Amino acid sequence: MARKNDGSAKRVMNKGAWTEEEDRKLAEYIEIHGAKRWKTIASIAGLNRCGKSCRLRWLNYLRPNIKRGNISDDEEDLIIRLHKLLGNRWSLIAGRLPGRTDNEIKNYWNSHLSKKMSQKEKKPQTSTAQDTTTKTATATATKPSHKASNDCADANFDVNEFFDFSAEGSYGLEWVNKFLELDENTTGYQEKVSSIV
DNA sequence: AACGAAGTCAACCGCTAATTT
DNA sequence: GAAATTAGCGGTTGACTTCGT
Question: Residue A144: which nucleotide is closest by CA–C1'?
């Protein structure tokens, strides 16, 4: 589409929806060379896109084992609980849902779950503790992402330390189960931590 | 059938963190 | 150690679809 290529003018990148042709080029290139150096990928693969755009497209659609749509009740429940704990840290939440992307979860939350949650809140609640944690997470979520990363919730609680997210492949879900069990009688992060550690 | 409102979701933007030179 | 580059994140936007009147 919009393209300037006279060498002197600033190159105008494609924007908007990806075409099948672009998808194919990107997928082929990554299959051969791997998914790194996105800027290089964009130019060598003959894509008039910025590196960021290529990365996003790959991560959200072209990557193998991507699940799209049909979020199950179990997944939904997990998202709600994780959000309660982590706030808007979509990539962390997505990391615990195989085949799901942060973008998909973020969209799903914003379009479905946030409404659901606010409706729930309007209803009289028996558990006040649950309310408290929800509000705390939401409040944290409004902060800039990276700054929030180490001060989730108002308690002195480091989520990264707690879960050790660096241990990839740890999708054994034992920790999830632990958390979910604890969540049944939520009384605060500190207690969760002390009871697990 | 036509139209506007509301909902959904793919993609972009701006920023920070991490890595490389 | 500093500067430049790259990767990654969450927030936001805008095009498209669905729904209600």
Answer: C10
Q: What is the pTM of this model?
A: 0.71
Q: Tell if A53 CB is < 7 Å from nucleic strand B.
A: yes
Question: Between the CA of A39 and the C1' of C4, what is the distance in angstroms?
Answer: 14
Q: Tell me: the pLDDT tens digits for A153-173?
A: 444 455 555 555 444 444 444
- Every domain of chain A and the residues it spans: 1-64, 73-196
Cα–Cα distances (Å) from A185 to A21, A128, A158, A180, in that order, read 52, 11, 20, 9
- Residue A148's region, left for phi above 0, alpha for psi from -120 to 50, else beta, is alpha
d(CA A120, CA A122): 5
Mean pLDDT across A20-44: 88
Query: Are the CB atoms for A66 and A141 separated by under 8 Å?
Result: no
Cα–Cα distance list, A114 to A8, A110, A146, A152 (Å) = 48, 5, 22, 19
Which of the four CATH numbers 3.40.50.720, 1.10.10.60, 1.25.40.10, 1.10.3370.10 does domain A1-64 have? 1.10.10.60
Distance CA A165 to C1' B4 in A: 47
Neighbouring CB atoms inside 10 A of A70's CB total 6
